[in-house]
Design goal:
By secondary structure, this protein is α/β, with parallel strands linked by helices. Helices cover 37% and strands 17% of the residues. The chain has 2 domains: 144 residues, 3-Layer(aba) Sandwich (Rossmann fold); 150 residues, Rossmann fold (3-Layer(aba) Sandwich). It contains 12 helices and 12 strands. Strands 2-1-3-4-5-6 form a 6-stranded parallel β-sheet, with helices on both faces. The protein has a 6-stranded parallel β-sheet with strand order 9-8-7-10-11-12, sandwiched between helices. Strand 7, helix 7 and strand 8 form a beta-alpha-beta unit. Helix 3 runs parallel beside helix 4. The longest helix is centred in the first third of the chain and has 15 residues. The radius of gyration is 20 Å and the shape is globular. It starts with a strand and ends with a helix.
């Protein structure tokens, strides 16, 4: 049996990739699968090379194109099998970074991608590509901080009728390669000013949106709750009716998969292919989104558990002799 090295970061900070890595590690421990973990928070070329030399299979989980290129080249030079989970939509960067990703994905032993468009693209460069889900269910509970629980309880108690509770999340305040706000949070705040029959919970674990709203003196309406501290979005989904994923780019969204797993409704932009049952609207067409939200009822959308990616990843490990 080969030895397995997982490369990535775990929370903090809270993010789609760090949560994925944490749940992967928790699942491997639960299943008593032998492995080691290299934490990128303490990365250096020398320590990483030593870690790679101690393993036969290296599973890379990160989004930095330059670091991915370096690590994949090193694995190839040292004769190690490299598995690369590409967290995001392939081809979403500028010309040079997209070219670098293409070289990396062509060179690695087995690229794992998260949506159909990425699978079609990478399949032209590397015949070993596999399509997997980014979603791994949590192992055990993920308790909310007391302050978050209190804020949510107060917010939900303020409902006056049958308001639909929507939720969304953003791990940072970032813009895509076209200069558009990636998560669409500011537009959602604007939309909910005119949606009194609905509530919106915004998970802002980095506090980036809170700082921006304060600096720009943007008032948050009473039917919108901002949670600007680290917390489990999975727990927020449990008490919501529907997830809004208003992104301009995506991979296989962890949040979407979590919502499907919990049987919640999902409204998402059509920036990438979405799972069955998701209600989609055209990317950046926020008036179209507003119409969808106005007509939404909790009986709409997906109501069945979606697939998880853990079994697929373990199958790849077995293929590599782990």
């Amino acid at each position: 049996m080969g030895s397995l090295l997982i490369v990535g970061k775990v929370p903090p900070p809270v993010g789609g990739v760090t949560i994925h890595v944490q749940r992967l590690l928790d699942s491997l421990v639960r299943d008593e699968t032998a492995h080691s973990f290299y934490d990128l928070s303490s990365f250096s070329p020398v320590s990483f090379a030593r870690a790679v030399l101690s393993a036969s299979v290296v599973h890379l989980n990160l989004s930095n194109s330059y670091l991915l290129f370096f690590m994949t080249v090193l694995c190839k030079l040292l004769g190690r099998t490299s598995i690369l989970t590409y967290h995001g939509n392939v081809g979403r960067w500028g010309a040079f970074r997209n070219f670098l990703d293409r070289v990396t994905l062509s060179m690695c032993s087995i690229p794992l991608v998260l949506n159909d468009a990425s699978f079609s693209m990478v399949g032209r460069w590397n015949l070993n590509v596999q399509l997997v889900s980014a979603f791994l269910p949590p192992v055990g509970g993920e308790k909310l901080p007391d302050a978050v629980s209190l804020a949510l309880g107060k917010f939900l108690d303020e409902r006056t009728g049958d308001e639909v509770v929507f939720c969304t999340n953003a791990y940072d305040f970032v813009f895509d390669s076209n200069g558009d706000e990636t998560y669409g949070i500011l537009e959602l705040i604007r939309l909910f000013r005119s949606l009194p029959g609905a509530q919106l919970i915004i998970s802002d674990p980095s506090s980036a949106y809170e700082r921006y709203l304060i600096d720009e003196q943007i008032e948050v309406p009473e039917n919108v709750l901002l949670l600007p501290v680290p917390h489990s979005f999975f727990e927020v989904l449990k008490i919501s009716d529907c997830l809004i994923r208003a992104t301009t780019t995506d991979g296989d969204s962890l949040s979407v998969r979590e919502a499907l797993y919990l049987g919640k409704g999902v409204v998402a932009s059509g920036c990438v292919s979405r799972p069955d049952g998701v209600i989609t609207y055209r990317k950046l067409e926020f008036e179209e989104l507003a119409n969808v939200l106005e007509q939404y009822t909790p009986d709409e959308g997906a109501r069945s558990n979606g697939p998880t990616g853990y079994d697929d990843i373990v199958s790849v490990y077995r293929l590599c002799g782990v």
